[in-house]
Amino acid sequence: MDFSQQYLEYKSQIDDYLARFINESKPDTLYKPVRYVLAGGGKRIRPLLVMLSCEAVGGSAKESLHAGAAMEILHNFTLVHDDIMDNADARRGRSTVHTRWDTNVAILSGDALLALAYRALLRTKSPRIQEISKVFTEGVVIVCEGQAYDKEFESRKRVRVEDYLLMIQKKTAAMVSVSTQIGGLIGNAKEGELAALKNYGEMVGRAFQIQDDLLDVVADEKKFGKTIGGDLVEGKKTFLLLEALKRARGKDKAKLLGVMRNGGVARKDIGRFRRIYEQTGAIDAARKQVEHDIRSAREQLVQLRDSDGRSMLGWLAEMLMHRTF
Amino acid sequence: MDFSQQYLEYKSQIDDYLARFINESKPDTLYKPVRYVLAGGGKRIRPLLVMLSCEAVGGSAKESLHAGAAMEILHNFTLVHDDIMDNADARRGRSTVHTRWDTNVAILSGDALLALAYRALLRTKSPRIQEISKVFTEGVVIVCEGQAYDKEFESRKRVRVEDYLLMIQKKTAAMVSVSTQIGGLIGNAKEGELAALKNYGEMVGRAFQIQDDLLDVVADEKKFGKTIGGDLVEGKKTFLLLEALKRARGKDKAKLLGVMRNGGVARKDIGRFRRIYEQTGAIDAARKQVEHDIRSAREQLVQLRDSDGRSMLGWLAEMLMHRTF
């Protein structure tokens, strides 16, 4: 089976679904930004995880398409509101909603996206729909908690690696794990299968975020599509910064503490900090954490039945680890 | 049966439910504002409507308490986000969330409130939970549409009475009608009963909003608890302003058009505009509209079985019409 081909097939099913999803057009100030966001592309990883998880417990991908779309719409809701809070001007090469329209429009179209995510989810035909909706809802609460921690960290002087891991577990990993759990529930997973899918999702999600932090420092700029060192310039408390801070001594430690306090590094100093990350072993630690999480995630898959869905979940975990995008 | 007493009893059940509802406390920046909002009081009319509607089709109020709380939390979500968009500093005598904290905190705690509303709703035990969740979700979408229209109207030069009625149907009446429908669904209403509850809710909701517009101009300041003429000062396109504009000629018409264009009236001119509202017959038209809607709402109740719930729905409609609060 050609997994890359299969991925493109599922991705286009999601893109089609989202393109047809909104029938309303009035009021313009609500539905223009909603359509704009849903047409904005993206890797559609979360819907893919829903569909593969459903298959990996014996369900069909088709019956999980509504829930897959729901996860993607939910993801886009978080992006629209996070972009307001982070003052971000651009995403995926396009203006953010609050930049193209205004903050009020972005708040309101974000709200509508959250409701529309439930609309898609509730089209799912499953005797377990209440359980599915509960998992989805608790995921939304957890994502809000994760974002609140993320914003708190910006002004906090002391953030430990453990705090960071809790934050990304809530802000990033939970949505991945909700995707795999919901896919499993639609496929009527047994308890053991469901636990395996949940764990797989959490570990893949965490690895994905730490890999993102790594790519900001070590990626090939052309392939990655965004400028290297952006996290350092913003003074973001990433896994690398916190891990390097834990390990550094003397002058390096003072420099890192400076970044924590002053909130940012000049562009010309990015190379210097990359070297500190290398020399303290923070980069190695991040790589090891990603490898460990991906291995643990794949180990969970033995709980599932031998199926194309399961094989492709294994492939996807590897691909996310080796991604350069 | 003493309906006022019964109302206070149900209200205190809701207040208790909301006080116990949030077990989480961290992160502070999320749960402090969430608790603050839920402890902020209010008339708890929407939960009351859920509980009474459930009883009026043969269900018990107790089984609809989760959904009642969900409607109140949902209502509070809309208030937190609307207050950001409207730049409102105070609500029910307390600072709004974005004033007491900041806009980011208000966006995020609003988002969490919406998810928490679903958490409460999904605790409902009902074979019709999917239908209930769909009605709730479509209500959220409609409220977003209503708010988008409301914001659009602020900068639109031409708004007709019909546009205004569509806006309040979406922004205010839909939530009232969702409350009565969901109560009916939990009580396992038959199709005819459900339609009657839906219609009752829409008409009561519309009357409630027009009454609110009226009270801004004619209420007793002390009883109403807020300053008279606030809508005029803000230049809000209310039922009264649009109805008066339709009816006025000559100098009065020019004055009203001035309010539409310049967005507001000086405090000292409020009395003058109140007289225009009276002389054009706009106030009478608003009163007639409210009376008509309340009468129609009550007529719907004959579709329901004779019960305390039904009687109290009739009482509630009257009370809302004669309210001075």
How would you portray this structure in words?
The first copy, chain A, is an all-alpha fold and 325 residues long. Chain A has a single domain, classed as Farnesyl Diphosphate Synthase (Orthogonal Bundle), CATH 1.10.600. Helix content of chain A is 74%, strand content 1%. Chain A has 16 helices and two strands. A two-stranded antiparallel ribbon of chain A has the order 1-2. In chain A, strand 1 (90-91) and strand 2 (94-95) form a beta hairpin. In chain A, helix 3 packs antiparallel against helix 4 (65-85), helix 3 packs antiparallel against helix 16 and helix 12 (239-247) crosses helix 15 (282-300). The two termini of chain A are 23 Å apart. In chain A, 50% of the residues are buried. Chain A binds chain B through residues 24, 26-30, 81, 84-85, 103-104, 107-112, 114-116, 118-119, 122, 129-130, 133-134, 137-138, 140-141, 144-145, 147-149, 151-152, and chain B through 24, 26-30, 81, 84-85, 103-104, 107-112, 114-116, 118-119, 122, 129-130, 133-134, 137-138, 140-141, 144-145, 147-149, 151-152.
